[in-house]
TrEMBL record, chain A:
<dbReference type="Pfam" id="PF02780">
    <property type="entry name" value="Transketolase_C"/>
</dbReference>
<dbReference type="InterPro" id="IPR005475">
    <property type="entry name" value="Transketolase-like_Pyr-bd"/>
</dbReference>
<dbReference type="GO" id="GO:0006091">
    <property type="term" value="P:generation of precursor metabolites and energy"/>
</dbReference>
<dbReference type="InterPro" id="IPR033248">
    <property type="entry name" value="Transketolase_C"/>
</dbReference>
<dbReference type="InterPro" id="IPR009014">
    <property type="entry name" value="Transketo_C/PFOR_II"/>
</dbReference>
<protein>
    <recommendedName>
        <fullName>3-methyl-2-oxobutanoate dehydrogenase (2-methylpropanoyl-transferring)</fullName>
        <ecNumber>1.2.4.4</ecNumber>
    </recommendedName>
</protein>
<dbReference type="Pfam" id="PF02779">
    <property type="entry name" value="Transket_pyr"/>
</dbReference>
<dbReference type="GO" id="GO:0009083">
    <property type="term" value="P:branched-chain amino acid catabolic process"/>
</dbReference>
<dbReference type="GO" id="GO:0003863">
    <property type="term" value="F:branched-chain 2-oxo acid dehydrogenase activity"/>
</dbReference>
UniProtKB/TrEMBL annotation, chain B:
<dbReference type="GO" id="GO:0009083">
    <property type="term" value="P:branched-chain amino acid catabolic process"/>
</dbReference>
<keyword id="KW-0560">Oxidoreductase</keyword>
<dbReference type="InterPro" id="IPR050771">
    <property type="entry name" value="Alpha-ketoacid_DH_E1_comp"/>
</dbReference>
<feature type="domain" description="Dehydrogenase E1 component">
    <location>
        <begin position="106"/>
        <end position="409"/>
    </location>
</feature>
<dbReference type="InterPro" id="IPR001017">
    <property type="entry name" value="DH_E1"/>
</dbReference>
<keyword id="KW-0809">Transit peptide</keyword>
<dbReference type="Pfam" id="PF00676">
    <property type="entry name" value="E1_dh"/>
</dbReference>
<dbReference type="GO" id="GO:0003863">
    <property type="term" value="F:branched-chain 2-oxo acid dehydrogenase activity"/>
</dbReference>
<dbReference type="GO" id="GO:0046872">
    <property type="term" value="F:metal ion binding"/>
</dbReference>
Length: 406, 456
């Protein structure tokens, strides 16, 4: 049952452009026929993201190499156009080549993975280092923790973030707490990295859409990371694999094929627990991570034109432990804050960010409007209603209007 | 493309490996290999060629395989209740000194159990778990492993720690959670761990250590492939029959088998999981019968016979290192003579007479003592001297450990991450400020460094 869904999703993830172009395909026979992912004819806000022009992706080598936080030796190197799954693949390959203690495994990883992230790795690095496991998430995670405890750097894949829950005990009670309980022995599961595709994909429904990041941000001992782009994915994944803390690396699966940009071919890392200011602004701070950043950017472009405001957009990159300083400094400057994420609003990352903002004395007194959260409703992700559930450009645009009008 | 084909080929090769079934004639194995070379169903074949089970013969008899059709897996023993050798091929491979060390390790644990159980009843430690009746499983198996072998425990394996060199001071430091405790005062009592002795720190969640042991064993295997100067090592992992009902048990055995991991699973089947008797834990033939289902070589031993446990573990270790590595399962049958823990009164769910029976009739320590006496290497005087010496050692370490300072309060914030995060630094400063502003509400004097340890 699961595998059927997987192939379906893998297929559609492969051709995101098709999804957005279906309205122009001349197969419409009756006026009542509606296809997935069409947008209303008069929509001005909720248009499909154009990944080929968005300023959030580096479309040229120069912009890629000018990315903040890139190490100096990479700034003079070459780049190559990659989409997100190719960048992940490149990072895994780089990690396997540079450290013989790196192992890559999970369900269906050996033939390249259902999203193609581990393509050619088994051939290049051997079936002992890149391999399939039985279909058991708790087993994958326990196995990875044991390997990490003995000094390896396992990169375990959970096929969908929706299926990480059987492994929760191992992640929460074992991986996260191992360094703490081992104490003086100095052992830990720090070599562990867990990759998992997450987020909406248009039609993933209840079990191929979830973003459980806030369940992990509640667990001391874990680093929770979500990249927004191929360049970022490579740098952050390499940093996660080489980090001595266990890392949860969540990959927005809708971006696997959709988001393509120039990515440095060198081996490089981007810093963990450090946010990135994607666009400076004066009146509103907008905080997000992963795919919704593209909607944020589109909403900001319209809102700045329509309302004459200037919005600062921050990508958290690491969701926990998060870069509080960067966020607080920005909100102290702007006095207004909007947090955007796909997962449910209740006890989500937005709750933590909003609470931290109002709790900080120097920031609280600067607030000009209530901190606003724009996130998924407090429901499972329903198949037919996804477009009403996740934060879209209209909702984010409206959020800017509301915090400015307050 | 080529990789997919390559991998499918590998999978076929794995399926074709014959199961260890001594009753099968060799011609069957030949047919299996032939069938496995081509996965398509050949016309008129007598054997199934579905990929899921290529070795299965067709039958026209509609017959469900019943558990009752199979005799219970036998229990290997070397020495009987009277200390008499029943395995005629058995030759003790330990010197007299080594046998005495093994015996005294068991004795030490049983004496420490008595002291600590009472100490908990007096409120001097918060919790304790005795291992009475199960000393031989732990000491016997540990004695058959090398110091380089990696060990994972559940919590009733004090004997493993003792045999590998955990001292009375080490035990007491952990139990009193003082500043010398490896766990830095964070864990409940009995959650021991040691880097030097290659034993991972115990965690309370049951069975979580099982798939970890498989992964650790895989790591050892890869590390030796990368560097052949590393000696061959196995992982040994202990668990109770109750823990074997957890999903992690299933995950661990299946992963260890499919990834060919050199790991020895050692089940202490002591009849009870807290109050739950085995009849409510499972309906199969114990834990051992499951090993076969995972394609794992399995043995059941008399857990009160230290020689049987030692011989089985020794052989299991050899097997685990064969053919590039594979898992082995040992089920040691024993009886939990003690309460589950200091928080449990087991007479609420089992008869006192049953327990007394076991204590009197069959006890692993007495069994080895009888064997030693028969060999002429032990006597009543030696017993008396050893008991007094070991008890003194325990009590001395007890008093010392109780007097030691607790770890610095700062320790509670450390080791969550490799480095203290800005958040944790802030929270540490906040706690310090509270301790300073409400000095009468907290006693920090018993902690090393007092509140100064919270300075940034």
């Amino acid at each position: 049952m699961k595998s059927k869904c997987i192939h379906h999703l893998a297929r559609t993830a492969r051709r995101p452009a098709l999804l957005t172009r279906t309205s122009s395909v001349p197969i419409t026979t009756t006026s009542s026929l509606r296809l997935y992912s069409t947008h209303p004819p008069n929509a001005k806000l909720n248009l499909p993201v154009d990944y080929s022009t968005t300023p959030l992706l580096s479309h040229t080598s120069q912009t890629a190499l000018a990315t903040p936080d890139l190490p100096a030796h990479v700034r003079n190197s070459t780049t190559q156009k990659m989409n997100l799954f190719q960048a992940i693949n490149d990072a895994l390959s780089t990690a396997l080549a540079s450290d013989e203690s790196v192992l890559v495994f999970g369900e269906d990883v050996a033939f390249g993975g259902v999203f193609r992230c581990s393509m050619n790795l088994a051939e290049s690095y051997g079936a002992e280092r890149v391999f399939n496991t039985p279909l058991t998430e708790q087993g994958i995670m326990g196995f990875a923790i044991g390997a990490a405890a003995e000094g390896m750097r396992p990169v375990a894949e959970i096929q969908f973030a929706d299926y990480v829950f059987p492994a929760f005990d191992q992640i929460v009670n074992e991986a996260a707490k191992m360094r703490y309980r081992e104490g003086k022995t100095g052992r830990s599961a720090g070599g562990l990295t867990v990759r998992m595709p997450c987020g909406g994909v248009g039609h993933g429904a209840l079990y191929h859409s979830q973003s459980p990041e806030s369940l992990f941000t509640h667990i001391p001992g874990l680093r929770v990371i979500m990249p927004r782009s191929p360049l970022q994915a490579k740098g952050l994944l390499l940093a996660a694999i080489r980090s001595n803390d266990p890392c949860i690396f969540m990959e927005p699966k809708i971006l696997y094929r959709a988001a393509a940009e120039q990515v440095p071919t060198e081996d490089y890392e981007l810093p963990l627990s450090k946010a990135e200011i994607l666009k400076p602004g004066e009146h509103v701070t907008m905080i997000s991570y992963g795919q919704p950043l593209y909607n944020c950017m589109a909403a900001i472009e319209r809102a700045e034109k329509d309302f004459g405001v200037s919005v600062e957009l921050i990508d958290l990159r690491t969701i926990y432990p998060w870069d509080k300083e960067c966020v607080l400094n920005s909100v102290r400057k702007t006095g207004r804050c909007i947090v955007v994420h796909e997962s449910m609003v209740n006890a989500g990352v937005g709750a933590e960010v909003a609470a931290a903002i109002q709790e900080d004395e120097k920031t609280f007194v600067r607030l000009e409007a209530p901190v606003t959260r724009i996130a998924g409703w407090s429901i499972p992700t329903p198949l037919m209603f996804e477009k009403f559930n996740f934060p879209d450009v209209a909702r984010i645009y409206d959020g800017v209007r509301r915090v400015m009008e307050y | 493309m080529s990789s997919a084909r390559l991998l499918r080929g590998r999978a076929i090769a794995r399926l074709a490996r014959p199961l260890a079934r001594p009753s099968q004639p060799s011609s069957v194995l030949l047919i299996q290999r032939a069938a496995a070379s081509n996965l398509s169903q050949r016309p008129d074949s007598e054997y199934v060629s579905f990929p899921g089970a290529v070795k299965s013969a067709f039958t026209t008899t509609l017959n469900f395989d019943k558990p009752s059709d199979h005799a219970a897996i036998p229990t290997y023993r070397v020495v009987d209740q009277h200390g008499a050798v029943v395995d005629t091929s058995f030759k003790p491979d330990l010197s007299t000194e080594e046998v005495i060390k093994v015996y005294e390790d068991m004795l030490f644990i049983s004496l420490m159990d008595l002291v600590m159980f009472d100490a908990q009843r007096q409120g001097r430690v918060s919790f304790y778990m005795v291992s009475a009746g199960e000393e031989a499983v732990c000491v016997g198996s540990a004695s058959a492993l090398t110091m380089e072998d990696v060990i994972y425990c559940q919590y009733r394996e004090q004997g493993v720690f003792k045999h590998r060199g955990f001292t009375a001071t080490d035990f007491m430091s952990q139990l009193f959670a003082n500043k010398n405790d490896n766990g830095r005062g964070r864990n409940m009592p009995v959650h021991y761990g040691s880097k030097e002795l290659n034993i991972h720190t115990i965690s309370s969640p049951l069975a979580t250590q099982l798939p970890q042991a498989s992964g650790a064993a895989y790591a050892l295997k890869i590390q030796r492939q990368n560097d052949p100067t590393i000696p061959p090592r196995v992982v040994a992992v202990y668990f109770g029959e109750g823990a074997a009902s957890e999903g992690d048990f299933h995950a661990a055995l299946n992963m260890a088998a499919t990834r060919s991991c050199p790991v020895v699973f050692i089940c202490r089947n002591n009849g009870y999981a807290i109050s739950t008797p085995t009849l409510e834990q499972y309906r199969g033939d114990g834990i051992a019968s499951r090993g076969i289902g995972y394609g794992i070589e399995t043995i059941r031993v008399d857990g009160n016979d230290i020689w049987a446990v030692r011989e089985a573990t020794k052989r299991a270790r050899e097997l685990a290192l064969e053919d590039g590595g594979k898992p082995v399962l040992i089920e040691a049958l024993t009886y939990r003579v003690s309460h589950h823990s200091t928080s449990d009164d087991s007479f609420a769910y089992r008869a006192r007479v049953e327990v007394e029976d076991w204590k009197r009739r069959d006890n692993p320590i007495i069994r080895l003592r009888k064997w030693m006496e028969a060999q002429g290497i032990w006597s009543e005087e030696k017993e008396k001297e050893a008991r007094e010496r070991l008890r003194r050692e325990v009590l001395h370490a007890f008093k010392e450990a109780e007097r030691e300072k607790k770890p610095p309060v700062r320790t509670m914030f450390e080791d969550v991450y490799e480095e203290l995060t800005p958040d944790l630094k802030r929270q540490m400063a906040e706690l310090k400020s509270i301790l300073e502003r409400y000095p009468d509400e907290y006693d920090v004097n018993e902690f090393e460094g007092g509140k100064k340890s919270l300075d940034s």
